[in-house]
Design goal:
The protein has a domain of 137 residues. Helix content is 69%, strand content 0%. By secondary structure, it is an all-alpha fold. About 29% of the residues have low confidence.
Amino acid sequence: MITRTAGTLMLVVALNLVACSKATQEGGAAPDLASPAGLTSMLTSKLGISEAQASAALGAMLGEAKGKLSPGDYSKLEGALPGAEHYLSAAGGAGVLPSTKEVATAVPAPTQPDGTPDSTVPAVGDSAAGYAPPAPQVEDVATAAGAATGTSALSSALAKVGLPPEAASQFVPVVTEYVGKVAGPDVANILKSAFPV
């Protein structure tokens, strides 16, 4: 009698394990939030957009951020978005990445504190091999680039990707929320500084 009961119990447990395993393989479990699938899944569910739109929009945002942020801040942001290279590629394929020329024209020429042009600092786009301005100047240029271009370039890119206006208006806040969850508030603030709402 005990062996029959034990056999039945083991059969029930085995069937439950098989059912759980099959459900996980068929997508029963949510994708890991800190993965490319988790990020695009979150964007598609919250904004009602396709995965292709989410990928191209993320790439457009990264492309714009690269021109607005210091290299260190951009690296932190890029590290918080798994699959960043994939997103940049998707944006390139959709034709929504800013060209180097567009980024260079968005950055004002360097000036001295009195407002006169500063010829000791090469302008964006000039050959500056081996030259690195002091950190405060880099931060000021990045801030100026962000202020000069605003979010209009990103808004234009999101429209070109096909995001409806209501999804486009929520895109940066949703991505900022994601970045805050996976990388912390400091990196979320970097994104906010590039695209103030």
